[in-house]
Amino acid sequence: MNKVIYIATIILAISSCNRPRSESSNQAGIANESAIVNDTLEVETQVAEIRTFTYPVQASGKIKAEYDEQIFAQNSGLLVFCKARNGLLVKEKEVLASLETSDLELKQERILVQKFNAQKEYESQLLGYENLLKEKTAQEAEAVRQKLKAATGLLSLEIDLKELEQERERAVLRAPIDGILSQVKIKKGMNLRPGQELYRIYSANDLFLEGKVLESDLPLLKVGQLAIIKSVANPQINYQGKLSVIDPLVDEHGLITIQLKVMQPRNLLLGMNASAEIKVPQKRGIIVPRNAVVLRNNRPVVFTWEKGYSKWNYVTTGSENGASIEVLEGISAGSEVIISDNVQLAHNLFIKKR
Question: Please, how many CA atoms are within 13 Å of residue 43, restricted to the half-sphere of its CB?
Fold first, then answer.
């Protein structure tokens, strides 16, 4: 008889264990269970605050320069001086190289002799027009003088001298801006020809990140917003940036091109891969750390610390930015939320704070 009762009791216990419970009954059980003491568990907490939620807009691309130009030779000739080299920081109008100019000097001497003879011929002919010029207006008299200069060849020689001076200036290669040299392809002793590539120069102090952002992020952006820029080469260094250009064109991938001016671009190089984060302020609300939210029964839950005990709170979440998340309902501002070891927590568990 006792054996029958014992077996019946076991069957009843098994059937009661397998009986399904509804979510509402689960919640009621959680709310009504007595406090569980755990003297060893210590957690970290943080106060839920009402503050402005910032949404990060991510962009990635390459570092470019406001001024970036490939320089080509204008004159032919032998390079007798050259200090251009890759990575050289230069000032505007600084001499980088120069061509041999002895042939230009001989040409100048020849033209000066011809000009001297033409000047004398011009002055001689001008004496014959002295009385005639007195009867002319100043404008008419100047026209007569120009005709005499052309007839004697003086005018053409004056133009030749100006062209020669320009040719001499082009024989000296100067930096067009304050910048840094790259792709230098010249050295002393080379014979240059017109159109030959010499070097590339860019404004090292005026760099920007040209990157892509999602089309859906466009309403959040406006020129002047601040950003943090990081290069792939040195991700531990943060550069301050400012949104300077928003290209009003969406490409075939649903992306928009933007430019972020780097405020102090020290140690950044042209063409570097980099990324940026533009933190866009949005509406104010209750904000908690992202790791304060865990999933239970496929629903977000936040555990709060109240007088030494953990409390289970179903919440409705809003936007998140990786570090923080917006809580729309379920807890109030000022609640002390648990941000560590909350995966193993239960309702009404006695715990300590670190």
Answer: 28
- Contact between 228 and 274 under an 8 Å Cβ cutoff? The reply is no
Kindly state the tokens that stand for 351.
């715990």
Phi/psi at 150 (5° precision):
-70, -40
Positive/negative CA dihedral, 326, 331, 336, 337: negative
| Residues with Cβ within 8 Å of residue 186, at least 6 apart in sequence | 79, 82, 84, 97, 192, 198, 199
Concatenated DSSP letters for 63-82? EEESSEEEEE--S-EEEEEE
Angle CA 67–68–73, to nearest 5: 120
Task: Give the predicted TM-score (pTM) of the model.
Answer: 0.64
Query: CA-CA distance, 125 to 180, in Å (whole number)?
Result: 56
Are 268 and 231 a contacting pair, CB within 8 Å?
yes
If you write DSSP's letter for every residue of 266-296 in order, what string do you get?
TT--TT-EEEEEEEEEEEEEEEEEGGGEEEE
Q: How far apart are CA 261 and CA 64, in angstroms?
A: 10
Task: Return all residues near 117 (Cβ < 8 A) that are at least 6 apart.
Answer: none
Helix axes 102-128, 138-152, angle to 10 degrees: 130
What are residue 244's DSSP bridge partners? none
| Close Cβ partners of 70 (under 8 Å, ≥ 6 residues apart) | 183, 197, 199, 200
d(CA 208, CA 290): 32
User: What pLDDT tens digit does each residue of the chain (354 aa) get?
Assistant: 333 333 333 333 334 444 444 343 344 344 444 455 555 688 999 999 898 878 889 999 999 999 999 999 998 999 999 999 999 999 999 999 999 998 989 999 999 999 999 999 988 888 887 777 777 888 888 888 888 889 999 999 999 999 999 999 999 999 999 999 999 999 999 999 999 999 999 999 999 999 999 998 998 899 999 999 999 999 999 999 999 999 999 999 999 999 999 999 988 999 999 999 998 887 788 999 999 999 998 999 999 999 989 999 999 998 887 788 989 999 999 999 999 988 888 899 888 888
